[in-house]
Amino acid sequence: MILFCNTFITEKKPHYGKGFVFRENLRDYSNFDIFRYSLASLTTAYPWKKVILYISLDEMYKSRQQELEDFINEEFKGHNIILRWSRNDYQQDWKDSYELLDDNLIWFYCNHDHIFIDSSQDYLKLLVDEMRDEELCSLAFSHWPECIRSAKYGGPSKPFDPKTYKIHENYVSCENESFDSIQIITKELYHRWWFEGDFNTIKLPRPDYFGIGLAEIKPVPIHKVIVPLKELCRHFDGYQHCKYPITNEQCPALEIPDGFFENNIKIGYGNGRRSDGWTSFNPLINEYKAVSNDGVDYKWTLDDIPLFWKKRISKTYSSPNLDEELMIRCKLKAVLEMVYTDPSFSIDLEIEEKILKLQLQNNSSFSI
């Protein structure tokens, strides 16, 4: 699979309207650092066949181009990297990139702020293997709470036919026209997007560009959309901007752990209170830091440490006399709270059981 990132790094924010408080108690970061954090997460997500990075920097960041290039070369050391300091903006640009795609699957990423937070590559590799022989297919690698709750209803994209909803062994699927810029897509779907029709005069640095997208210009193919049974990536600012908002109490926005870029992450597991400079894991705490000053960073166990953090951790402290079974049960409750985010959506019991079973793969001695 090829990693293909086409993005613009700026401090201008999309206009989502009034009433959103995305980060609440969480710290703010520059988009430059969020992008570095995202890239670091992707380095360990999959053994990429090729890494294509087309990056445009706003004027305020052009002086930091070499810094970012050095970071990319260090993080993706050993990979086949194609780095260009301008992004694709028009149809012909996307056509020209097609010759670089020597694999059937592309991690298609036109954002800067989606973070791979799985604790291993195993599940993603399994899904990639399932997609390998598909012709027109995509996989939603982010927005998991939104996608899993809506798959039964045809997914968040339109048009859709709920009758296409299927439960598979390792994922669920439906059919719609999804042309989001945060998907794994097949090479043939890429070709259908960018080679059919003539729209080279319209600026499209992403297929779902703000204000106009592919579906407003031309017919886009209805295809199989795979929804994982586990969260792979999370949007850094959370999901309050979804049509049916998902709050920070259900699936919080993210922070960059203290010490991340210095390889000095310190994790406290099971602590009653957070300590300065430490990232707290405790599924027993009711609230997240995002919504409460006494809240926890993550309702995870140590088995859930994101894969890309592991080489950057300097200290881990576990509270004595932890009831690990209780910790796991409370973690599972937190996962289900990400799924059941709105009464408008119902989840099949079979799907819930599959989600919980997948969560427990790292806890072989525990069963539900």
Q: Which tags fit this structure?
A:
Spore Coat Polysaccharide Biosynthesis Protein SpsA, Chain A, 368 residues, 2 domains, 14 strands, alpha/beta
From the coordinates shown, what is the CATH architecture of the largest domain? Answer: Alpha-Beta Complex
Number of strands: 14
Domain count: the total is 2
Cα-atom Rg, whole angstroms?
Answer: 20 Å
* CATH level-1 class of the largest domain: Alpha Beta
Low-confidence blocks of residues = none
Order of helices and strands: EHEHEHEEHEHEEEHHEEEEEHH
Helix content: 10-25%
Figure out the total of helices.
9
Shape: globular
Measured between the Cα atoms of the first and last residue, the distance is: 35 Å
- How much of the residues is beta strand, in percent? 15-25%
